[in-house]
Every structure is written in C-alpha cells, then in structure tokens.
Amino acid sequence: MLKALCCIIQRDLRLTFRRRGECVMPLFFLVIVSSLFPMALGSDPKLLAQLAPAIIWVGVVLSLLMSLDRLFRSDAQAGILEQFVLSPYPLSLLMLGKSVAHGLVMGVPLLLLAPVLCLLLQGSFESLGVLWLSLVLGIPTLSLTGSVGAALTIGLREGGALLAIIILPLMIPIVIFGASAVTAANQGISYDSELLLLGALLLLAVVLGPVAISAALRASVTCV
Amino acid sequence: MRVMDVFHRLGSPKYCYQILGYCLPWVSLLCAGLMVYGVFGGLFLAPPDYQQGDGFRMIYIHVPAAFLSLMIYGIIFVSSVIYVVWHIKLADAVAKSSALLGATYTVIALFSGALWGKPMWGTWWIWDARLTSELILLFLYVGYMGLRSAIPNPKRAAQACAILAIVGMMDIPIIHFSVDWWATLHQGATLAKFAKPSIAPEMLYPLLAMIAGFGLFYAVIVSIRVRGDIIIGAGKIP
C-alpha cells in the first residue's frame, strides 16, 4: 500500500520534471498577476504593504487553479485513468499520491517565490514566517480541494473556466484564514487561531479529499 | 416495511408521474391561495412597522426567498445522496430541476435585500456575514448548473453533479463559519446582531403564508419539470 503511494508520487514528480516548462507557467503567472496590482493601485508603499498578504494569497490560489487544469489531462489522454480505476489498490490512495505530488511540485516553488513577491509588494519581512506557515498549511488543502474539481471536469471543453467557477467558492475559507493570518501578523496581533484553523482544514481535506477525488474520478471515467 | 414500500414505489417513474399528476392541481391552487393571502395581508392587513414604516414589507419577499434558497440546496444535497447510494434516477431529476429555482430564489433574496438595504442601512450592499454567505451560495448554485450543462453525457452529469453537491454541502458550514469569523474580525457584526423584535400576529401570518407559498411554488415547478423528465426518459407519457 505504502509502496503504491510512493510509486505514484515518484512517477508524477518524474513526469513533471521531464516537462519542466509547463509547471513554470503558473509561477510566472503568479509573478505577473502580483506585479499588476502595483500598476493598478499605484506605488504607495503603505497601501501595498497592507494589501500584500491578500494579493499573494489570491495569486497563489489562481496559479494553483491554473496548474490543476492540467492535473489529469495527460493521464486521461494516455488512458492511465482507466488503469487507476482498475488497479487493485484503493483509488483514493492513488489520488492522495497524485495530490501530494501536485502539492510538492507547486508548493515548493511557491514557497520560494513568496519572499520575492513579499519584497515586490513592500510586505514586511517579519511576517514572512507566518506567510510561509500559512502557505505550507494552505497549499495542500487547496490542492486536495481543487483536485475534486479537476476530476469532475476531466475532458470537458470548458474545463478551465468551469473548474474555476466550481472550485473557487469552496476555497474561500482557506483564503480567508490564510490571508488574515498574515494580516494579523503584520498588525502584531496573535495569529494562532488562523493557523490552527488552517491546520484543521488540512486534516479534514487529507481525510475526506481523496475519497471525494476518487468518487469524482470514477464518475468521469466509468460513466460512458 | 410500509415506509420502505412507499419509498420504493415513489422511485418508480410511472407511479411518481401519476401521483404528481393527481397532486399538481391541488397544490397549485393551495400555492396560489397562500400567495394571494400573503401578498394582500403583507401589503394591506399588516400595520406599518413603527421604525421602518412601509419599508419592512420587503420581508414578505425577502425572507421566504432567503429561507428557501438554503433549503433547496439542502434538498439537492439529500437527493444527491439518494442518487449516489441507490442510483434512483428520479432523485437526480429532482436535484437537476431544483438548481435553477434555488439560484433564482438566491438572486431574489440578494436583490430584495439590496432594495431594502438602501433606505434602511443607506447602502445597497455591505460585506456582512449573512449577505456574503448568500452570495457564496449563489456561486455554488452557478457552479452546480455550469457543471451540469457542460457534461453532455446525462449519466456522468448526474453522478458528477451529485458529488459536487455533496462536497458543497460539506463545505457550507465551513464557509459559513469562516465568513462569520471574517466579518466579525473586519467590521464588527453590528447588523447581524439586529435583535429580532417579537412580531405582531397580523405581520407574522402573511409572512408564514408567503414562506409556504414560495415553498409550494418550488414544489409545483419541480414536479412539472420532473414529470417532463420522466416523459423524456420513457420516450412516451407513462
């Protein structure tokens, strides 16, 4: 069981590594979106510093959405999804593996990018640790929630836009807690409760997410 | 035993079609009667509110719409669970026909709230917890309908939408809690604390009639659409 999980994670990491170009796109997207804000808002450092957590968090969500659109695409084209459904291992376990790989592939570069964006947006360096922590707790939850939507929209023509409409409302709590943790840290207030709630959501997502993803995948693959 | 029996028979499209056919005229009549009494009572019988004047009469539209918008999502959730567990096609038909009405009630609740808010609060919109939750509920409905219309295969659409509805229902308490928490953090829930004054009976009865009327209107429309679905599924009138 554990071996199957590791295999899936390894496979997905290897596949993304071989197509590095594709997974860089959402990161550049994030950088560009974040630098659009100063252009629209003006370069007032105080205003930007106040908005920085919100901008970074919204940007992270959007770039994750962008990458989720591709989560199942190549597997669906190659017919691997049917093999997943047929395999003797529980489908939810395999889906957990795919989500972990996606979280690693997107999460690690996003964590590396966060300080740069923080600098760009004049955010304070003191709050960087909290930003990191909130992203570490939030990105896996976002990835698991988003995978449900990605599994539901496999192979649909309007995939990308539809995915956003389906999944963004479900991601609202994570954005609220994530951004307000950083804002609280900026204002010097306690931010424990936000991080604890993010952690609780993460645990909930790890338990229920794979079940929902595998149910969604089964619906998309087997209903013909 | 008997309960399960009724349940099984309701699941059969033919029986369901007939039952709905018998009930529809009576339910429609009851619905129309309740609505007429509710509108008349709300506009003329109920005295103006001592603080809000005639503006309070918006509740006769607003409260039923807001109440039903959430309840219909609950109905979609229950029928989705029934569909996922027992694969009863009628449950999916109910969920499918409910979504549009639920979204419509949500829009009505939002707009009537805005119309009431302008003279009472001095603003069309405020990012208060309840308003924000209602707006997110609208997003959930839109996503549900979008997914439904994007999947050409009806079987896959039914299964996928059922899963989305179940996931959405799991998320609603979390969303509600987070939004509540966010609103109190950012601006203090002055409006949510609005203590509900005890309401005079001549104000209350039309309101209850309107809630029942809105609910029955939903039931009538869903019944008509489910009957239509049964005809399409069978290829003939059963």
Can you describe what's shown?
The complex is a heterodimer of chains A (224) and B (238). In chain A, 85% of the residues lie in helices and 0% in strands. Chain A is mostly helical. Chain A starts with a helix and ends with a helix. Chain B has seven helices and no strands. In chain B, helix 2 runs antiparallel to helix 7. In chain B, 37% of the residues are buried. Classes of the chains: A mainly alpha (224), B mainly alpha (238). Chain A binds chain B through residues 148, 152-153, 156-158, 162, 165-170, 172-173, 176-177, 180, 197, 201, 208, 212, 215-216, 219-220, 223-224, and chain B through 84, 136, 139-140, 142-143, 146-147, 150-151, 153, 155-156, 159-160, 163-164, 166-168, 170-171, 174-175, 177-179, 181-182, 185.
Measured as a percent range, the helix fraction of chain B is over 70%
Mean pLDDT reading of chain B: 85
Report, as a whole number of angstroms, the end-to-end distance of chain A: 29 Å
Number of strands of chain A: 0
Structural class of chain B: mainly alpha
Number of helices of chain B: 7
Biggest interface and residues each: A-B, 28 and 30 residues
End-to-end gap of chain B: 27 Å
Largest sheet of chain B: none
Number of helices of chain A: 9
Q: From the alpha carbons, calculate the radius of gyration of chain B and give it in angstroms.
A: 20 Å
Main beta-sheet annotation of chain A: none
- Oligomeric state, counting identical vs distinct chains: heterodimer
**Helix content class of chain A:** over 70%
- Uncertain regions of chain A: pLDDT < 50 for 5+ in a row? none
Quote the beta fraction of chain A.
under 5%
As for the number of domains of chain B, it is 1
**Overall form of chain B:** globular
Low-confidence stretches of chain B: 188-195
| H/E series of chain B | HHHHHHH
- CA radius of gyration of chain A is 18 Å
